[in-house]
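Predict structure. Chain length: 251.
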Amino acid sequence: MKIMVAVKRVIDYAVKIRVKPDKTGVVTQNVKMSMNPFCEIALEEALRIRESGLASEVVAVSMGPSQCIDTLRTGLAMGADRGIHVEANYSLYPLSVAKILKKLVEIEKPRLLILGKQAIDDDCNQTGQMIAGLLNWPQGTFASKVVLDKEKQVATVDREVDDGIETVCLNLPAVITTDLRLNQPRYATLPNIMKAKSKPIKKFTPEELNVEIKSDLEIVEVTEPPKRKSGVIVSSVDELIDKLKHEANVI
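Prediction complete.
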């Protein structure tokens, strides 16, 4: 069984984000980039499934500018068998990404497609659901546990919902999106980083895949969140209650 994993290049989670002066986006020049943390979890889960003997190959896919090759190399160093880079030097929104993934699925024919539930740059949380709809595959979103039955070709997914944990059974092929508590991604070791340099990465463009890219979203303005006011230390419970009554109006 082949597993395909989508990985996204984003601004590193530890970087302080700065808005451009013209408010058209955030500053990315000379900013550290890395693999989206939810994508790391998705890739780790695929690798564990392969290591358990339930899959034969893990293919990592990334879309965007040429620098996405670095993200793919990180995935290959973690243990993915090969990579696919769809080069696009313009913004790709969830629906466009889902259409490209659909074409790649038709080419690669994986039995399982795993994605992070969302990317930390836009927090859209849409691509997994969209690709499942385009492929007409069952989906298990926000997965906190995944169990595969290779003989029955079924995946059992525990997914995090508002009321707790919901368990769904999916007939393969299926789409799974990963939540934070699914696993702890591994670090790439130096020997594996060296091996990753020789692993193959196949390149495509949206035009070669016959996918028309058109923007379905318009960014009007990007602004920083308002700064929080400094807190106040009170000397007693009575003073706290008085402030809540007359200043915060919560009592």
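Summary: The chain is about 25% helix and 25% strand.
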